[in-house]
Amino acid sequence: DAGITQSPRHKVTETGTPVTLRCHQTENHRYMYWYRQDPGHGLRLIHYSYGVKDTDKGEVSDGYSVSRSKTEDFLLTLESATSSQTSVYFCAISVSLAASTDTQYFGPGTRLTVL
Amino acid sequence: ILNVEQSPQSLHVQEGDSTNFTCSFPSSNFYALHWYRWETAKSPEALFVMTLNGDEKKKGRISATLNTKEGYSYLYIKGSQPEDSATYLCAFYSGNTPLVFGKGTRLSVIA
Asked: How far apart are CA B2 and CA B40, in angstroms?
């Protein structure tokens, strides 16, 4: 258990509403990631962070923004949710400070449904 | 975008059978190759990380090999059990971008 929690674990929302998902770690690790899981696509990287206020885009970043104001928290925001953003969202952390292998450990996931 | 391919996409085997699947990745800018095990309704769990050509790793009945020159890794499961049913993901690390995951091989072991 790498000390990662995600909240909420489940959420149902309506198209056009803003949604924020939270990832919290107790390990003080530098690297944090947000993925989405969809059938036929495996895990796809949305955004990642390599330090407080340092973030970068992943493969599927359109429609998402992130913020990291503290080492332990990485927030994923859907400014205006769409049905195509219905998915399971996983947060991950990298335990290697040098990221020499980038072994990642995953949170329990958040299931988001956009109606 | 780096391309990581896994085959087969899915696999059904009988309990007791041995099986293997493949991960193909770019042979240039190689830093590490990861295998993860992902059970339904859970989160992916790290199985192995390999960094050197020729590496072999083993955990119980599961083992993995690595060929960085030709860009492939094999995952082997000996004597499959129902509890081995999961999706097995590989992920490639090039050193300057985060892990790139394959789409996984979904294994079902029938008792």
From this structure: 26
User: Quick one: how far is CA A18 from the chain centroid?
Assistant: 15
Backbone angles phi, psi at B107, to 5 degrees: -105, 130
pLDDT (tens digit, 9 = 90+) per residue, A55-114? 999 999 999 999 999 999 999 999 999 999 999 999 999 876 455 677 899 999 999 999
Show the tokens assigned to A5. Answer: 């929690």
* CB proximity under 8 Å: B 87-106 to A: 89, 91, 93, 95, 98-99, 101-104
Q: Please judge whether B49 and A43 are an interchain contact, meaning their C-beta atoms are less than 8 angstroms apart.
A: no
CA distances to A3, A13, A21, A111, B81 from A10, in Å: 19, 10, 10, 5, 31
